[in-house]
Amino acid sequence: MMSTMGNPRNVFWHECAVGKAERQKLIDQQGCVVWITGLSGSGKSTLACSLNRELHSRGKLSYVLDGDNVRHGLNKNLGFSPEDRTENIRRVGEVAKLFADAGFICIASLISPYRKDRDACRAMLSDRNFIEAMLLSVFMNMPLEVCEGRDSKGLYKLARAGKIKGFTGIDDPYEPPMNCEIKIEQKNGVCPTPYDMALQVVAYLDQTNSKILTLKYAWSIGSNERRCSAPPRVGDATKEAGSTTGGVTANGGGVASEEVQQTEVVKRPKEAMRGATMMEGCDGRRQRQLLKL
Ligand SMILES: Nc1ncnc2c1ncn2[C@@H]1O[C@H](COP(=O)(O)OS(=O)(=O)O)[C@@H](OP(=O)(O)O)[C@H]1O
Ligand SMILES: Nc1ncnc2c1ncn2[C@@H]1O[C@H](COP(=O)(O)OP(=O)(O)O)[C@@H](O)[C@H]1O
């Protein structure tokens, strides 16, 4: 009989014969999680769908876990109290981890306003049992005025009128990430198109982990160059340093006003003619970790 000493809940991990490495080989890609965070109306779902489309067109399996959608099923018992948001993000993090383990590129798009919750997901995805899973954090760095100006669901209007309490950015805080790999933001007051936002992420995935995107898409990597039969039409940025953003909230709802580190999009000289870009995340240490995978 198996001992339950030190295991008060009597639950045991069960390994299956087919592992992650075999699944990944079968579908010719590496599982990971792209975590998109930002205010309501910042374009998270738009980017998630556009990225999903771009990956699909490259023959890569991806799946979107959208906050709004997940709250229709798995998380329909959760509201927007800080505790419920924490549980919402924890559950989506766990599901995303399973998708990554299955070999998918899982795109999670949630406001995920609190830094500690996002950090917990990052830690969860660095678990030594899931050493190959990785989390790429994308921050939709859109000003509150832009998001509120869009107000596609009319929720900001209701929140301003006091008809929704605890609305992110109005009377509940959004804590901008300090360790995102990619920042999506306006340039000269213009928002990148959904296609360009998606390509910014695709380019990063390609740079950080060639296994994810290169195999089926006819890339050939030579000593110091790479060619692609259909080169991604990445934006023209030569050096796009992000602006500094403090906590986003209209009435100072307790947000920590910390500086966000900058994400740079640097065009490689050798690749400039082909329009490819190299992304340097806000957190160089974490990016080096990704490169090792
Ligand atoms: N109080 C409050 N604050 C913020 N958002 C609210 C709130 N109430 C409802 N909504 C709608 O719920 C969507 C956000 O769900 P998420 O699961 O992404 O939120 S969270 O990560 O748990 O904070 C969010 O969708 P998006 O606009 O797509 O972000 C809103 O439509
Ligand atoms: N890059 C963009 N350029 C112009 N409009 C955008 C862009 N991204 C999103 N939008 C518009 O902004 C609104 C909110 O976008 P959405 O993706 O639903 O945001 P979120 O999921 O963060 O709430 C939608 O009407 C969408 O069409």
TrEMBL record:
A GO molecular-function descriptor: adenylylsulfate kinase activity
InterPro entries: APS, APS_kinase_dom, P-loop_NTPase
Record has Flavoprotein as a keyword: no
GO biological process: hydrogen sulfide biosynthetic process; sulfate assimilation
Pfam families listed in its UniProt record: APS_kinase
SUPFAM superfamilies the record matches: P-loop containing nucleoside triphosphate hydrolases (SSF52540)
Alphabetic keyword roster: ATP-binding, Kinase, Nucleotide-binding, Transferase
Assigned EC number: 2.7.1.25
Catalytic activity: adenosine 5'-phosphosulfate + ATP = 3'-phosphoadenylyl sulfate + ADP + H(+)
Disordered: annotated segments: 228-266
Stretches assigned to the APS kinase domain: 30-184
Pathway the protein contributes to: Sulfur metabolism; hydrogen sulfide biosynthesis; sulfite from sulfate: step 2/3
Role according to the record: Catalyzes the synthesis of activated sulfate.
Record family assignment: Belongs to the APS kinase family.
Official protein name in the record: Adenylyl-sulfate kinase
Protein's organism: Mikania micrantha
